[in-house]
TrEMBL record:
One of its GO terms (biological process) is carbohydrate catabolic process. It comes from Planotetraspora thailandica. The active site is at 454 (nucleophile), 522 (proton donor). CDD domains: GH36 (cd14791). Belongs to the glycosyl hydrolase. Coiled coil: none annotated. This is Alpha-galactosidase. Pfam families: Glyco_hydro_36C (PF16874), Glyco_hydro_36N (PF16875), Melibiase (PF02065). Residues 621-695 form the Glycosyl hydrolase family 36 C-terminal domain. It comes from the Bacteria. It catalyses: Hydrolysis of terminal, non-reducing alpha-D-galactose residues in alpha-D-galactosides, including galactose oligosaccharides, galactomannans and galactolipids.
């Protein structure tokens, strides 16, 4: 049966997923009103749902239920999703329904709305994929006036509403550089709560994911409504709980204060703001998002990502051919499959002060170019990757001296340097084309397999002198990044890209549609990483989470941890190694090779399986991955008091009537015991203890 149904008598649409339903209807004034988001309903049942009327209705309070795209006009006092100002100064919108259409596959609904007086067309888009409960929503606005522009002051992708419950909590991700993806879960206040990035990128400080629950949800049960914006630039999500209990939120690209002049005949389309409902807790929500990312976002979801080595912590900017070859030789001994040379290989790049933007190999460090290094890496049986930062430039560079106007700047204002860098304005077609050209040349000349695409500073002085509509650079820059990535991947089908922005400053569904994995933090301390990875997993699957083993003491925290513990934490995603291998002992190299081999045995389950987050006694936490009959458990206990070893760890997703075999020890466990009593863990004594367990259903 089709995923989208229409009832013309009630002017109502119903979108259906495998376990959920979403319904909207046209009100008398032709505004599109929210009806239902939750458990499955038939079209007839949805038609019986009464519109929620505010019990506090008065001359000071809106009466009607919430709009699917809130606008100015009428008795609407919550956060608007669409703000426009017409040429004569009129603001707000009055709707007239202009029809709808549903794609032949039955999964894409478009509702067309016109303003009653001005030639403005707005289309609300809804899309559901077969087998998924995720609803994709976005908005298209078109100026149909032949003469006058329309000022767009705000254009969100969608507004969402939770049904009435006695309590609401919100979950979101906060942090900073080296402390990304910290999960926060608090009651929703009676107020407007704004989550945003004004930095020109997704940011380390917040992520465009928000979950609202019924106040009782835990990992495996409870109602959760969650949404994620597929955008890698500035963004804003505003959550509103009014005094009578209605909870809504609206979100989209751009932050407050920006204006887009929509020229006659021009359209503006927003990114997708996707939503998901589950009645089975935060874990079920995460697994549904993970499946959606694999099936409908990633370009190569079935690929198993290689174990990589990155040279940054070993060399910093002191990069040369001989040193990289020595690191490559040691990396190959460990079983590494992809060697990535980091910063310092180009121009006058001997520190962060100069050379960024001059993307040709340093002739002193690489007298014959990169060819000999690439050949040696391939001779050792590895693929070759390289670090780039295409969006930034040092003022001390040939590029900046030739094109000082290519950076973001404002007339009569200073140019703020952060990390001695400025940001290229890729909204400029000339700057974007130049950027694509050198990347295309680099990838093509050396057959580069992997780009680590970095971005190490936010926007400042984000102007475009001489341009009649300078605020549009906030959107067009991100679109240009997408277009460059898309062109590179189309012209070089074997190329894979890792999204990085000083760590996890650019992680979202938008960038994942054209990259393969994300570097989630420059902080590789395994104790800190447990929390960072926990927050990241709320939305994103292990298949895209790049995680490295680096030196001890850790460069960021100075914490000392065992090699085994560092590996076991990094094995929870796409394993990488980033330490100075020339300083590792023979015993460390031998143990690392064994741990890399162990990861390769569990990698198909970790990268392609379903993830369950587990919690044990004290500081013990774990992740369990399941794929067909195979289960992988990675458990970590950072600290414990004397005499307080953790009890057996209760597992999820095992069948109580089945028996499970430990593939390494030969021990067997009844499924009922694993569910209710737990899996005994062979943890080494002391702090920073960890273990890896492989189980298989044996009968």
């Amino acid at each position: 049966m089709p995923s989208v149904l229409f009832d013309p008598d009630h002017r109502l649409w119903l979108l259906r997923g495998p376990t959920t339903a979403y319904a909207v209807r046209l009100a008398e004034d032709d505004s599109v009103r929210h009806v239902h988001w939750g458990a499955p309903l038939t079209l007839g049942q949805a038609a019986e749902l009464a519109e929620r009327i505010s019990p506090a209705a008065s001359s000071f309070e809106a009466v009607a239920d919430v709009d699917e795209l809130a606008v100015e006009g009428g008795a609407r006092f919550g956060p608007p999703s669409l703000l426009v100002r017409f040429a004569d100064g009129t603001r707000g919108v009055e709707w007239r329904y202009a029809g709808h259409d549903i794609d032949d596959d039955g999964g894409h609904l478009r509702i067309h709305l016109d303003d009653r007086h001005y030639p403005l067309r707005v289309t609300l888009n809804y899309r559901v994929h077969a087998g998924s409960d995720v609803i994709e929503r976005w908005t298209l606005v078109e100026n149909r006036d032949e003469h006058d522009p329309v000022a767009v002051l705000r254009l969100d992708s969608a507004a969402w509403a939770a049904p009435h419950r006695t309590r609401y909590r919100m979950s979101h991700l906060v942090g900073g550089w080296n402390s990304e993806f910290q999960l926060r879960r608090t009651d929703v206040p009676v107020a407007e709560t704004v989550l945003t990035s004004r930095r020109g990128m997704t940011s380390h400080h917040a992520n465009p994911w928000l979950a609202v629950d019924d106040g009782t949800a835990v990992e495996e049960h409870g109602e959760v409504w969650s949404t994620a914006l597929a955008w890698s630039g500035s963004w804003r999500v505003t959550l509103h709980r009014d005094p009578v209990g209605r909870v809504t939120w609206t979100g989209g690209f751009g932050h407050e204060g920006l204006t887009w002049s929509l020229a006659p005949g021009e359209t503006l389309e927003t990114p997708v703001f996707a939503g998901l409902y589950t009645a089975n807790g935060f874990g079920a929500a995460s697994r549904a998002w993970h499946a959606y990312v694999r099936e409908h976002v990633l370009s190569h979801p079935d690929e198993t990502h290689p174990v990589l080595y990155n040279s940054w912590e070993a060399t910093g900017f002191d990069v040369d051919e001989a040193g990289q070859m020595a690191l490559a030789a040691r990396a190959a001994r460990l079983g590494v499959e992809l060697f990535v040379m980091d910063d310092g290989w180009f121009g006058a790049r001997t520190s962060e002060r100069a050379g960024l933007g001059d993307w040709t190999p340093n002739s002193d460090r690489f007298p014959s170019g990169l060819g000999p290094l690439v050949a040696e890496v391939r001779r050792l049986g590895m693929r070759f990757g390289i670090w780039v930062e295409p969006e930034s430039v040092n003022p001390d560079s040939d590029l900046y001296r030739a094109h000082p106007d290519w950076v973001l700047h404002m007339a009569n204002r200073g140019r703020t340097e952060m990390r001695n860098q400025l940001v290229l304005n890729l909204a400029r077609p000339d700057a974007a084309e130049w950027t694509h050209a050198w990347l295309d040349r680099l990838v093509g000349e050396y057959g580069v397999d992997f780009l680590k695409w970095d971005a190490n500073r936010p926007f400042t002085e984000a102007g475009w002198p001489g341009h009649g509509d300078p605020d549009r650079l906030w959107i067009e820059h991100t679109r240009a990044v997408y277009q460059i990535m898309d062109r590179l991947r189309a012209d070089h089908p074997g190329l894979r890209i890792e999204a990085c922005a000083g760590g996890g400053g650019r992680a979202d569904l938008g960038v994942l549609a054209r990259t393969d994995q994300v570097w989630i933090s420059d902080n590789t301390d395994p104790v800190d990483r447990i929390g960072i990875q926990h927050g990241f997993s709320q939305l994103y699957p292990a298949h895209v989470m790049s995680a490295w083993v680096t030196d001890s003491p850790n460069v960021a925290t100075a914490r000392r941890t065992p090699l085994r513990f560092r590996f076991h934490v990094a094995m929870a995603g796409v394993l990488g190694i980033g330490g100075d291998l020339t300083a590792w002992t023979e015993q460390e190299l031998k143990e690392s090779a064994e741990l890399v081999a162990a990861y390769k045995r569990v990698r198909p389950v970790v990268q392609h399986g379903r993830q369950h987050r587990l919690r044990g006694d004290g500081t013990l936490t774990a992740v369990q991955y399941t794929r067909d009959d195979d289960h992988v458990v990675l458990a970590w206990c950072p600290t414990r008091a004397f005499g307080h070893d953790p009890a057996p760890l209760r597992l999820a997703a095992v069948q109580p009537e089945a028996t499970y075999l430990d593939l390494d020890t030969g021990a067997t466990y009844p499924g009922a015991v694993l569910l209710h009593s737990g899996l005994p863990l062979d943890l080494p004594p002391g702090d920073h203890a960890s273990t890896l367990v492989r189980l298989r259903k044996a009968g």
